[in-house]
Design brief:
Elements (H helix, E strand, L loop, with lengths): L1 E4 L2 E4 L8 E9 L2 E10 L4 H11 L9 E9 L5 E11 L14 E4 L3 E2 L5 H7 L17 H14 L1 H6 L3 E6 L5 E7 L2 H14 L9 E4 L5 H10 L3 E4 L5 H10 L2 E7 L2 E6 L10
Parallel strand pairs: 3-6, 4-7, 11-12, 12-13
Antiparallel strand pairs: 1-2, 3-4, 5-6, 7-8, 9-10, 9-11, 13-14
Helix pairs in contact: 1-5, 5-6, 6-7
Length: 276
Amino acid sequence: MWAFEGTTSSARSDVLATEEPLEIRLVIEGLRHPVAVTMRTPGADFELAAGFLFSEGVLKSREQLRRITYCIEPDLDDEQRFNIVNVELATVEAVDLTPLERHFSVTSACGVCGKATLEALRVRGLAPIGFAAEQGERRIARGVLTSLPETLRRAQSIFHTTGGVHASALFSPDGELMAIREDVGRHNAMDKLIGCAFLEDKLPLSGHLLMVSGRSSFELVQKAIAAGVSVLCSVSAPSSLAVELAREFGLTLVGFLRGPAFKVYTGVERIAAFER
C-alpha cells in the first residue's frame, strides 16, 4: 500500500484484519441444516457458532450440545473445511426447526436481518433482568465504569496490530477483565464472548458487565439480554431501538463511556454514583 503524509508518499507493507466467511450448520440426527453465513475474523469459530445459536434462541442449554466440529468433505478426499462449522445436537427436544429451513446471511456490519423487532424477543420468552438489590446485587461504582475503556484498549491485541477490528469484553462487578474477543464484526465479537461462557456452562452472566468498542446496536443489546448480563457499556451512542429494548428488559445501558464521562440511558439505579 501507499502511505501519504503531507507532501510525501511511500510504499509500505501493512497488516490487515482477516475477514473470511463462516457457514454455521446445525446437525440433528445426522441431517445438516444450514443456519447462517457470517463474515468473521478466523479464530474462536466454535465459540462464535455456539454464541450465535444461543443468542438466537436455538440453543438453550449446554446439555443440548453434543459437539462442534469443522466440516470434513468426503467428496474432497476428506479435506477439512475450516470455513464450515457443524454444531451437533445431543437431543432434538425443544428445537424449532422452522426458522432453520431457510438460509440467511450475517455480514460483519449489519447483524442478523429480520431480527430487529421487540416482538421477536417477547415471543422467545426472554425474562427482564431488573435490579435485584434485595437479592444482593451490587451497584456499580463510577470508578469501575470509567476504568473499562482503558482496560479494553490495552487488551485489544489484534486491534493494536491492524486497527480494523471490534472488541467485546466481559468484566466482573469490580472491573476485573474476565474475557475479551475481537472480530471484524462487532456482533461476532460478542457472540464469541457469549459462546465461550456457554461452552464453559457459565451462563447466565448475572451481575457482570459487558464493554464493546463501538456503538450499542439492537443486536448487541439483544445478545446481552439473552446472556443475562446486567450492564452493557459502549464508547459510542446507542440506537433508539437499543434503548427501548434495554428499558423493557431492565438492562443498564451506558454510552459515550470515555474517560471520566459517560451517559446512562436505562437502568440508572445500578450505578452507585446516582444512588438516591
